Structures are given as C-alpha cells and as structure tokens.
Amino acid sequence: MPELPEVQTIASQLKKEILGLTILGVWSDWPKTLQVVSHKDHLKIKKTKKLVKASELKKLYKVFCDDVIGKKIKNVSRIGKNIIIHLSDEHVILVHQKLSGHLLFSEWDIINNVPISKKKGVLNDKVNGYIHLIFYLSGGKMLALSDLRKFAKVISGPKKEIFSLSDIANLGPDPFDKNFTFEKFKRRVKNKKGKIKTVLLNQEVLAGIGNIYADEILWVCKIHPLTPTEKISSVKLKKMYNEMKEMLRFSIKIGGDSMSDFRNIYGEKGKFQKYHKVYQKKGEACTRCKAKIERIKVGGRSSHYCPKCQQAAC
DNA sequence: ACTAGCCCCTGGGAGC
DNA sequence: TGCTCCCAGGGGCTAG
Question: What domains are defined for chain A?
Fold first, then answer.
C-alpha cells in the first residue's frame, strides 16, 4: 500500500512528466472518489456518508470539473501520504491513494480511446486495470487513477482551504523535514501514550509511516510492537529515528514497495518487498535468530514480529 | 486521552 | 466446478 516512499516515488515521477500540461477533461465511473471544498455539497456528502443521491454526485462532479479543467499544472509535491498537484490560480488537487490506489501516466490514443503504454506488459498487469478516474491532459497525455478497492480520495479546491482540511492540517512532521530532529521525534513519541506500533502509525505523530515500514522498523530496532512508548529507552529511540530515515530513503531509491497493489506512474513495480524481514512473513524463520515470525493484531492492524529478538521489555 | 469497533470496497482464499 | 463466507487494510468516525 502506498506509504511515504511510494507516494514520494509517484510525486517525483509526476513532477518530471506533467508540469506545464493543462487539464482538458475529467472522466470518472466512481465519482465518490471525488470531493470538493469550495461548495456546500462537500459538507452534505460527507455527512450523508452512505446514500449519496445521483443528483448530488452530478453537482459535485461539475464543481470538481470547474475547479480543475482548463488549469495548468504548476507543481507536484507530497505531504505525508498525500500527493498535491498545484494548479494555476492557486487551486490544488489532493490525492490520497489509500490502500490500493495508484496514479498512472500515459499517452492517450484519442481515436481508439485507450492508453498507450511505453512499457511492454504494463497493461496486462491486473492491478493497473481498475481505472476509476482519468484526467485528460494537453499533448495527448493522460493521468489515471487505478484503484481496486475504491478507497482513494481526490479533493479539489483553493490551496488555502485544502491545506486547512484535517487531512493536511493535523499531520505531524515529515521524517525528511530538515527541522525534524531526533529531539523532536523523541518528544512527539514520548508525548503519546500507548503501544509503539499504534503511535508509529498515527499520522499526527509523524506523517508517512504505514503498516509495512512500521513492522520493518520495529524489527530492525528489536522492539516489540506492543511496547508502551514510555518503556522505550532514548538509545532505542535514537536507533529508531536513524533506521527509519535510512529505510525510507533506501525504499525510495528502489522504487517503493509493491507487496500489494502499488505501481509507479509507468505501471511498474517497486522492489522493497524483496527486503521484507517480517511483513507478511508469518511462519517463516527470522533472518537474525531463526525463530518463527508471528502475527498479532495491534489497533486493528496486523503486526508481524519476531517473538525472540523483539522482546517486549526494553 | 485512549481504545474498540464499524464503515468504506473487492479479489482471493478457505470451506463445503 | 462453483457457490458462499470471510478477510485485509488507511483513516474517519462514534461510542465507551
């Protein structure tokens, strides 16, 4: 699933491909993916949750189109696990890919209305086929969202308003932020009571870590996922801070993690899944001590760990 | 302040 | 073979 390295991979690649292009049109067969902030219907739809009337979706779709069509793409950035596409006139599009969403960039065969892939086999990869949103771009290009589970969210609106949404405003610091020192990391983790795994996944503590990297970081640091934050020594925290940054940097370098549905904007897999030590390795031998990897539930999420070298006491 | 549980979805695996 | 049931998983939300 897309976590910091995967989202960074997408953002960096988009930056190379779509800057300066204009959005010419929007298509969607699942408009529930879309949200807007500059319209009262946004609130209405959020509140109704389950039953969204077709007429409301139609209105929302129209506002979304008004927000983005005819706009030029000025920049692409990442905040936590969110991709921000900056448009002319201070509007932005926020994309959160959630579990199975990923953005695909391609040329577009306008005559036959199909994407033209640069790479062979990409269109045969099943996970690239669940396309529910397309931005038609100038120059015969397209940007599509493939999302098997339809959990992804795409929100348009004025930059100021989007950045004040809880999706962005409540996020903790980015692990790669220059100001995110060890002292800051330590303070934020220690201020949160609870299990370390839950705290690592909490995007308000720090933004970008998800289930895969949390499990892998805890294994490297030999910390049991259920360890209360107050029981973790400064030495261990320091190691966690360093290992986390190194792991994320390494994963970005090799294109992220494609254990599940993640693909980059060209539809290609990343390689981090080849380096997993515990995630989805239940029953396999720990590469450090040969004990069998176990899986437990922590805060509703599955957690993988080595019962021998990740002891609860620190 | 924290936790447990539900919801959103669908492919895939298990069981019959 | 084919049917039904159940589950994962990020994050928002509510109830306890």
Answer: 4-169 (3.20.190.10), 182-305 (1.10.8.50)
